[in-house]
Design a protein that fits this description.
The chain has 352 residues and is α/β, with parallel strands linked by helices. 43% of the residues lie in helices and 16% in strands. It has 12 helices and 12 strands. The strands form 3 sheets. Strands 3-2-1-4-5-6-10 form a 7-stranded parallel beta sheet, with helices on both faces. Bound molecules: nicotinamide-adenine-dinucleotide and 2'deoxy-thymidine-5'-diphospho-alpha-D-glucose (DAU). 2'deoxy-thymidine-5'-diphospho-alpha-D-glucose binds next to helix 6 and strand 8. Nicotinamide-adenine-dinucleotide (NAD) binds next to helix 1, helix 4, strand 5 and strand 7.
Amino acid sequence: MKKNILITGGAGFIGSHVVRLFVTKYLSYNIINLDALTYAGNLENLKDIDHCSNYFFEKVNILEADKLKQVFEKHQITDVIHLAAESHVDRSILSPLDFVYTNVIGTVNLLNTAKEFWKDDFSKHLFYHVSTDEVYGALGNTGFFTETTPYHPNSPYSASKASSDHFVRAYAETYHLQTVISNCSNNYGPYHFPEKLIPLFINNIINKKPLPVYGDGLYTRDWLFVKDHATAIDTVFHNGKINDTYNIGGFNEWKNIDLVKLLCKLMDEKLGRNEGESEQLITYVKDRPGHDRRYAIDATKINKELGWKPSVTFEEGLAQTIDWYLENTEWLNNVTSGAYEKYYDNMYANRG
Ligand code: NAD
Ligand code: DAU
């Protein structure tokens, strides 16, 4: 059966890499990118592939059940890879309900649409839900998140993602929809919206603006190059066990302050600035409320069972990322103008 795969959130950071990979690698599949084009969605992210004959775009909000149904019928959708979400923790602290609407209700809308459209034979179809390691909560100084770690979300964002994961599981159990879930660690790379740590700090270093490090800077994140997340999604989509879950990560933990110092050093070299110049921009600011201390993914299962592993080291991935931002100043300027600037001023006004 020919595959017509609906990828939601394909105009966002990770979604655009997944769409590009599938459109260019699987010429016999039709790839339908469904995205509401919120502040985080940008069709410029896909301008290199939007002419491809197996690529289609639908501007639809996943809250609009009728329009979802029309898209399923129009394109005869066979499978879903669901990435559309509100994704920024700080925004979830300011506006939790936006996260409930898109991440919870939007996901349930999509599940209902798939369930209804595929009801004659669930065995031919897959609903793949892309989730996050943040559902597991925070780790102490040791240990890793495995697929059996109990959920313990601490932010409105992670609570909404945890809830959507539970709905996906419930639809598999109750209605026999075929599903798979993956929970990935922090991504970085090209097309990352400059509200998140790495692209925000690259942009601020370029513009010699302060680098706002939350709290004591000793929070730890586990970083994966976005193109490696896309290949992991490809692997899980094609070879993952039905109704199972996979953790995705690169065993690559960094304390925020160490990462920021490395970024400053690499940027000084690339920009021809004096050694230590960008580090002087580091400014400790008020902490994020409910800030999770440490994330670390145990990616043994996807490696052992499906043979996936990351393709680049952190040093290679970070260098590629910095080069991309330096070569794509037009993209950066386009997304940092207008509404985004207002959000930025608002977000950091009360952090001191
Ligand atoms: P992003 O914010 O860059 O992109 C989200 C996309 O979803 C945007 O294109 C946006 O327009 C679209 N969208 C938002 N609300 C929508 C709605 N109601 N209807 C239709 N489209 C809508 O996010 P990202 O960083 O690319 O994350 C993608 C997915 O991966 C999310 O589900 C996120 O939870 C998950 N994830 C992200 C990371 C990370 O480090 N960024 C890590 C693990 C998992
Ligand atoms: O772990 C996966 C998650 O990673 C994804 O599910 C989320 O969608 C994604 O946004 C990301 O969440 P984080 O909160 O970890 O990412 P963020 O880039 O916002 O922050 C990374 C760390 O840097 C975190 O400890 C907070 C800190 N930080 C962040 C910003 C934006 C700062 O110190 N200063 C900042 O200005």
